[in-house]
Amino acid sequence: MAVTSCHVATTKQLSGAYPFLCESGLTERGTIIGQDLLGGPFCFDPFELYDQGVISNPNMVVMGQLGKGKSSLIKTYLWRQGVFGRRCWVIDPKGEYGELAAHSGVQPISLYPGGHVRLNPLDDPYAGGGDKRDIVTSRRVGLLAAIISVSLQRVLLPGEITSIEMAVRDVESRHKQPVIPHVVEALLSPSYASATMLRTTVTELAEDGRQVALELRRLVTGDMFGMFDAPTTDNISLDGPLVVLDLSAIYGSNALGILMTCAMAWLQGITDRLEMTTAGNSQIILVVDEAWAVLKNPAAARWLQSSWKLARAKGVSNIAVVHRASDLLAVGSSGAEQIELAKGLLSDSETRVIYTQPPGEVALTSELMGLTPVEEEIIRKLGRGIALWKVGQRSFLVRHIISAIEQQLVHTDQRMGVRERQNV
Ligand SMILES: Nc1ncnc2c1ncn2[C@@H]1O[C@H](COP(=O)(O)OP(=O)(O)OP(=O)(O)O)[C@@H](O)[C@H]1O
Ligand SMILES: [Mg+2]
Questions:
Q1: Nearest residue (CA) to ligand 1, atom 9
Q2: What's the pLDDT score for residue 401?
Q3: Which is more confident, 3 or 341?
Q4: Mutation probe of ligand 1 site: the residue of 355, 397, 410 with most atoms within 8 A of C-beta
Q5: CATH superfamily to which 23-114+238-413 belongs
Q6: Are 318 and 60 in contact (CB under 8 A)?
Q7: Whose CA is nearest to atom 10 of ligand 1?
Q8: What local confidence, expressed as pLDDT, does residue 151 receive?
Q9: pLDDT tens, 388-397?
Q10: 264: left (phi > 0), else alpha (psi -120 to 50), else beta?
Q11: How far is the CA of 384 from the centre of ligand 1 (A)?
């Protein structure tokens, strides 16, 4: 009798066989990013995924070495999000989003010392709205404390923080629209009422706030004057699909982190206002490119983290673009505090896009991002435009695809062009 040799297995066993394994994809709703290297197209939208319960916050960190395609991903992503009516705001320290702005029919807002545009980071989004007054005061104090701490490169003393708070309260009682020069003045010449409240003298209170005042003066008369020291310039249009704050004029300055923090504070004030007037319907994507300049300082990093926590409630998806995992470790804080700060920020950013990392960064990236050993190997050798996407609990290997039309939005290698051509 002939016996046919064959393998018999249940469907459960068969499903474990490689040919039948296929990544089910993240979602088919949202903007297309490119190709899932283990499956079909890869789409992403933080608001949709939040609705589906895949992620519990809409924030994102994009991390990768120079020239691997981080900004290109962001530019095409924002361009594609325009189709869904999302509003996109960008802090652009290198001045490279001009092409995207032109395609979106808007002009970047260029900030430079003594320029024509002023943004007041102390703007009150609620325009004096009664029950929000304390929130506005504490945000102003928090922002000023963060930027002064960055500028002084040290933690502020309790007396200094109190003097900032008293100065802000003094200014608020005297001016409908406080600006930073008012605060400097109130720090240098505190009121009798403030001193009495603190059971001290005016001279002692002025002494407590003197260093703080002199540092804050940099934004008024020093090297950073004429950007954040007056009421916000009229006629700044925020109605378009895209707002780009171009900070390239001060890119090389050691004040970059401070100015980026001021710009973020101003934009966040606007999101609060929109939330009030549109009942939270205005979904916004707020990108901080080159975010390492902010994150390297513990005070600024804490300030950024606290504002990211509000993202979900306000319908804002924040995106920080950094080079490497160690950019998330604030300089000057202790090792444990650095890790705690970085993990805090990452726990508020459930989408992490990781381009290739140098060998010295892999262990830290793995610790902070919770990578598997296989993922650790993968991020050592990814080509340009390919990244590991960790979205909530899931991981994907994605090749970002740029269409022919989008090429003009992303090309940052122009200046390298001559050498590239010579090398051919
Ligand atoms: N997915 C991609 N496919 C092909 N080329 C790409 C891709 N992404 C980026 N590039 C090219 O690589 C160059 C550098 O990209 P990009 O400016 O986005 O890098 P980056 O990671 O933001 O660099 P940096 O850290 O210096 O800001 C661009 O000129 C772009 O044309
Ligand atoms: Mg870039």
A1: 69
A2: 97
A3: 341
A4: 410
A5: P-loop containing nucleotide triphosphate hydrolases (3.40.50.300)
A6: yes
A7: 69
A8: 87
A9: 999 999 999 9
A10: alpha
A11: 7
* 121 closest CA partner among 147, 159, 103: 147
Q: Which of 237, 234, 239, 232 is nearest to 87 (CA)?
A: 239
Q: Is 70 exceeded by the pLDDT of residue 327?
A: yes
243 φ/ψ angles, rounded to the nearest 5 degrees? -125, 125
Whether the per-residue pLDDT at 119 is higher than 50: the answer is yes
Cβ(385)–Cβ(400) below 8 Å: yes
- Lowest-confidence pick of 5-9, 114-118, 149-153, 237-241: 5-9
Q: How confident is the model at residue 275 (pLDDT cuts 50, 70, 90)?
A: low
Asked if pLDDT for residue 75 goes beyond 70, the answer is yes
Ligand 1 site residues, Cβ closer than 6 angstroms: 64, 66-72, 323, 384-385, 400, 402, 410-413
The residue nearest atom 23 of ligand 1, judged by CA position, is 67
Residues 253-267: tens digit of each pLDDT: 888 888 898 888 888
Q: Is the pLDDT assigned to residue 2 strictly greater than 70?
A: no
Q: Which two tokens stand for residue 59?
A: 């924030």
Q: What b/e sequence results for 92-131 when a residue is b if at least 16 CB atoms lie within 10 Å of its CB, and e otherwise?
A: bbeebbbbbbebbebebbbbebeeebbbbbbbbbeeeeee
* pTM to 2 decimal places: 0.87
- Per the listing, tokens 């989008």 go with 406
